[in-house]
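Whiteboard transcription, Tuesday session. T.W. wrote the structure tokens on the left side:
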């Protein structure tokens, strides 16, 4: 019952080849078969079946249905769905049931989508491997001994292994695009503000963005169109351009040669794919002067924002509270110590440090200035070019049992993906046809276009990918 697209699914429903209830039961069975991959934290079987039964009745009655009627979607564990549990992969939020839905989820549900469950992720989106979760690591469906990428690893695997038709994730520094590259799926991070952040449990407020993981660009476009738009509950939300560029001729793609350097087989695939694009695209070599500042700038700003955002989790009103505190201060201290994982604690401490008196100007203020310089340079690169093409990861997915002693090695793996979050531009993955290179794992590059040109990026990506 695997459907190549939402359109194909709806045709099957209209032709009477399947019912909404049968479809939900199929995906529930897929979740059960693949439970060893640890992609899901919670499965809303009863709720999903009830919604499917209601849709079956609507169809029998000849009633109009939404654009996403019966489309089975998973949501990352840091996206709220009214009346359902949301923990952001952390013990600190154990037992928390959201009293409201994220605007993005509400829009999808209003169009008939069925939310089948929440997917596993690094705590509060802090990680590149989906191994920092309170619920254990996510395993890659192609090889369970490999990481799935992060932090939206569970979302990516849920699509990879046909446990849903599409997934919602969040992308703060590549958390959608990197796991999509590792799982042979399509990851899309919209322009900052294009999708409301209301109902997304915050990590870095000026970086976070809800996006999609899907099997194709058509589904990503359909879901994004429904989610997109300004929202009175999120003052940073914006309306995007509705018209999409068609790219009838040869697209002009900017690239930075330095980004494609490296001797590993993984980067050789990236370079070979880039060179193959010369058949259909005009590749324009450009300079990028802030490469070495990308990761430091990103981590200074996101940890600063995280230290503020996560201060609300104290064990008082909801979530985990320590069993027998000696006094109020001890309750705060122990609840947070027990509730947050090591990586979250590390980032809170770093963020508190860069915001402290005597270091604020030396780190935080300078990082803000560098961010503006990076934004200006990307805008200049996109002037006269249709898109900016770059790798997603410098290396293939690590093994789950691989010991990485130096945490900066993990942080540096984000060097290519944090760029779009620093600038706020939309970015989407483009699969590399790895069978041409005898690769053992899937691989992708990413495209960046002008902020607000989200609808155009799908056409550009499709034009490049359809060549293969």
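and on the right, the sequence the group agreed on:
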């Amino acid at each position: 019952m695997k459907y190549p697209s939402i359109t194909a699914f709806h045709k099957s429903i209209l032709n009477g080849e399947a019912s909404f209830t049968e479809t939900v039961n199929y995906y529930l069975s897929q979740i059960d078969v693949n439970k060893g991959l640890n992609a899901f934290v919670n499965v809303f079987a009863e709720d999903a079946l009830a919604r499917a039964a209601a849709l079956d009745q609507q169809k029998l009655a000849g009633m109009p249905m939404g654009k996403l009627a019966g489309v089975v979607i998973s949501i990352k564990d840091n996206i709220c769905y009214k009346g359902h549990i949301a923990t952001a992969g952390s013990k600190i939020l154990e037992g928390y049931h959201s009293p409201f839905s994220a605007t993005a989820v509400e829009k999808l549900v209003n169009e008939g989508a069925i939310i089948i469950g929440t997917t596993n992720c690094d705590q509060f989106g802090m990680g590149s491997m989906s191994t920092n979760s309170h619920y254990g690591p996510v395993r890659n469906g192609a090889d369970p001994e490999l990481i799935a990428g992060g932090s939206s690893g569970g979302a990516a695997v849920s699509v990879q292994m046909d446990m849903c038709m599409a997934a919602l994730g969040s992308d703060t520094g590549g958390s959608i695009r990197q796991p999509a590259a590792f799982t042979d799926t399509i990851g899309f991070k919209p322009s900052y503000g294009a999708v409301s952040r209301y109902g997304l449990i915050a990590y870095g407020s000026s970086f976070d963005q809800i996006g999609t993981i899907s099997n194709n660009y058509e589904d990503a476009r359909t879901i994004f169109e429904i989610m997109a738009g300004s929202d009175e509950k999120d003052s940073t939300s914006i309306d995007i351009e509705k018209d999409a560029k068609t790219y009838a001729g040869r697209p002009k793609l900017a690239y930075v040669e330095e980004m494609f350097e490296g001797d590993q087989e993984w980067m050789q695939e990236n370079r070979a794919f880039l060179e193959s694009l010369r058949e259909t695209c005009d590749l324009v070599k450009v300079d990028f002067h802030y490469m070495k500042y990308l990761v430091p700038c990103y981590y200074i700003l996101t940890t600063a924002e995280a230290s503020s955002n996560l201060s609300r989790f104290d064990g008082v009103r909801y979530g985990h509270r320590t069993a027998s505190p000696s006094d109020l201060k001890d309750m705060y201290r122990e609840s947070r110590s027990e509730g947050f994982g090591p990586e979250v604690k590390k980032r809170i401490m770093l963020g508190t440090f860069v915001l402290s008196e005597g270091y604020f100007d030396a780190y935080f203020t300078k990082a803000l200035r560098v961010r503006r310089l990076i934004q200006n340079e990307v805008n200049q690169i996109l002037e006269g070019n249709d898109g900016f093409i770059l790798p997603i990861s410098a290396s293939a997915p690590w093994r789950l049992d691989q010991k990485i002693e130096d945490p900066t090695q993990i942080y540096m793996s984000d060097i290519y993906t944090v760029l779009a979050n620093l600038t706020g531009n939309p970015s989407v993955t483009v699969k590399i046809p790895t069978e041409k290179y005898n690769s053992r794992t899937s691989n992708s590059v990413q495209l960046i276009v002008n902020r607000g040109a989200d609808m155009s990026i799908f056409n550009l990506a499709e034009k490049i990918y359809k060549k293969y």
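Someone added at the bottom: Residues 6-227 form a domain with the Amidase signature (AS) enzymes fold (CATH 3.90.1300.10).
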